[in-house]
Structure formats: structure tokens, C-alpha cells
Write a structure and sequence with these properties.
Elements: E1 4-8, H1 17-24, E2 29-33, E3 49-52, H2 66-79, E4 83-86, H3 88-96, E5 101-116, H4 120-126, E6 131-142, E7 149-153, E8 161-164, E9 167-170, H5 178-187, H6 189-194, H7 204-208, H8 211-231
Parallel strand pairs: 1-2, 1-3, 3-4, 4-9
Antiparallel strand pairs: 5-6, 5-7, 7-8, 8-9
Length: 237
Amino acid sequence: MKPVAIFRHARSEGPAYFATALERNAIAFTLVPLDEGAKVPRDAGAFSGIAFMGGPMSVHDELPWIAPALELVRNAVGQEVPVLGHCLGGQLMAKALGGEVTRAKVKEIGWGEVRVADNAVARQWFGDLERFEGFHWHGEAFSIPPGATRVLANAHCANQAFAIGRHLGMQCHIEMTEELIRNWLRGGADEIRKSAASPGVQAPAEVERRIAQRVEALHKVADRIYARWMEGLSRGS
């Protein structure tokens, strides 16, 4: 089986629990550190799946890897190689597939309830789950691209995730670990202070409150989502 390609856009936003889920399922993966100058491959068929992590940049920034990444998403969808996007990754997927990425009406940082949509596609991904507490850190948001279905939403962001076939793009983060959250809080302290007026931004103390229990619950949701995505991986050699 070919490996899953994981694209990292910032050193601080690695695969975290997603890598753990792949390892538990004995699925090989290769990390593509775009933040270190790695090149975006042209052929998605070299991998069993494609995953994009988050990052502080915008899909509209003039960075050398953005256009090739958008093309890779389209190439993967065309070959039915499953694509998975976390936050910035979901925005890349949305833009590549004809959606729009714009400034979010409400900036979100911290924990927040996410509702599962009441439709058949959402049930394929989430079963009987109706809602969960997700982790958020974004100032932009995507529209649902043509042909895709909204599967997650919340009070501050109508489009928290979309699915189209084997592919899932998320605005929220499900890959979080305690260590990753604390690292982000340290690195993003200034951003939190400057955004404190937003109703979607939590103080660091609230983000860290009951962090072990919250992360454990999030991992259970992530296990479900990742398992569903992994079912679609190309099993060819």
C-alpha cells in the first residue's frame, strides 16, 4: 500500500493525533514539510491518500506552494485519492474545488461546540453523533464547494466541514493534543490578546480548563472521522 502524504505548512502545526491514528492502523505516511521548502508532487496517484494540516497563512497569500497544492487537490479528487483537510487544509480544498475563502464573520480560538448536519452524507461520516466539542483557531472561513455537502456547523461558523465522496475538508481542528494546544497558546498569546473582543475567542485559562478530558473526548471523535477516511484509502501498491 502506498503511503499517505501529509503536508505541513508550519512547523508548529504538524500532524499530531492524525499521525497517531495512522500508526495505530499500521498505515505508512510521509511528511512533506512545505515550511522547509519541500516541493508539492504533481501526481496524487503516488499516495494512498493526501492530508493537509493547518497553518497561520491564507490560501490567498503569494506563497510558492499554494498553486501546486490546489492543483494536487484537484488531481487527487480526479483520481479518487482521498483528501483530508484540517483548517487551512480545508480552506485549500474548498478553494481548489470551486469554493470561496473569505474573512470569517467571527474569529474563533479555543473550544466550541460543533453540530453534525442532519443529512445522509453527515451520517456516513459521523454515525449517530449529533454534536461534539471541537478545537478552533481561524480568522478565515470557506464556502461549501460545488458538489460537496455541509456536514458540520457551529454558532460562529456555518461551514465547519464539507464532504464530497471520499474527501473531507474541515475548518475545525480534530488533530489536537495537549502538547500542541499549549504550544499554540504560547506562540499565539499576542493574537489572543488582540482578538479578545471576539465572542469566539477564549482566554488561555479557559482553553486549558479540563484540557485532558476535552482532548480525550476530541480523540474519540477524531478516531471516528479518521477511520471513515482511512476506509477510502487506495489499497494498490
